[in-house]
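Run: sequence + iron/sulfur cluster -> complex structure.
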Amino acid sequence: MVNRRDFLKICAAIGTAATIELYSADIRDIFTQAIEAHAQGDNVRLIWLAGAQDTGCTVSLLQGSDPDLIDVITKFRLQLDFHQTLMIPEGEAAIKKLEDIVNDKSRVDVLIMEGAIPEGYFCTVGEIDGQPVPIEDWVKQIGGRAKYNIAVGQCAAYGGIPAAKPNPTNCRSLSEVLPDKTVINIPGCPPNPDWMTLAFAQALQGLPIELDEVGRPAAIFKETVHEGCPLLGYYEEGIFAKTLDGPGCLYKLGCKGPLARADCTVRRWNQGLNSCTTAGGCKACVEKGWPDEPFAPFYEEAAEIPPSAALGINPILIAGAATGAAAVGAVAYAEHRRRKHKKEAKKEASA
Ligand code: SF4
Ligand code: SF4
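>> structure
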């Protein structure tokens, strides 16, 4: 188990790719420490709004097991004041929770946005004085008051499917609607539950989070899906699958793993069981501009692969900094891991 000091060290060093593996192994321990740190503090007041979306991000978060959502909410002293799917109050009582914040009768610490934000009356939540209230208005009012604004899922982070061309409802991301606020983007369709809980844990601890050029926690979204893929050896040997169940690399069947920066193939999904490249191929759902070209068509070979996609490092710091040594370490580690995976995949291919 990591102690509190180690936890702080891990979080401070989130710029290093190596910490991804520590997080995977120790996420429960991290939360144990976070729970202890918050045991005496105030509740963290959280509002979860949903715009143009399908509740997939909430469902993904509900699938988290280490810790599960109940652990996160109850032991971590989260006070979830509004979540239209999970909350017990309904109707006027539910909308009053939002009105109280807007009228400064209640505080909000964190706004979590799920879904894209359509223009005006294309998406409304509740009524005030008999008038429907556009989600955009709630987002501006509540996000403007929150200490942290977190966009969960591709739609809230970058617009996603609702904002795909021609975007008839003018769907926008959280950062487009709140241009003056720092937004932590946790993209994915849906995001891995670990990504969400790690971002929440760090933000709630007030710890520095290093973001990349599109607002994602750099440690999670640094290397490509392709780099950690168990099928990488096939790709490098030019062995391409003819059908989605292989054998061979799925690139020519439309896998966009080389375009996607996320730790999916290392962290994996479903309690570490698998990820998309062993279940039909990656669609690059964590990237800005998805699902339009170059990410579509889904089942056709990508037109081009950016040569430096794997190691594109252009971090923006909210607070704190990864050291130069950490950045160098990340690059070295990525290369080490790339070689290791290549060797393992080769072994698998020849077995
Ligand atoms: S299946 Fe996709 S991610 Fe895996 S090696 Fe092939 S192109 Fe890369
Ligand atoms: S493997 Fe690709 S499609 Fe699957 S979650 Fe990761 S980025 Fe999205």
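>> summary
The pocket of iron/sulfur cluster (ligand 1) is lined by residues 225-226, 229, 231-232, 235, 249-251, 255, 257-258, 277, 281-282 (CB under 6 Å). Strands lie at 44-50, 78-83, 110-114, 124-128, 131-134, 148-152, 183-186, 210-211, 316-317.
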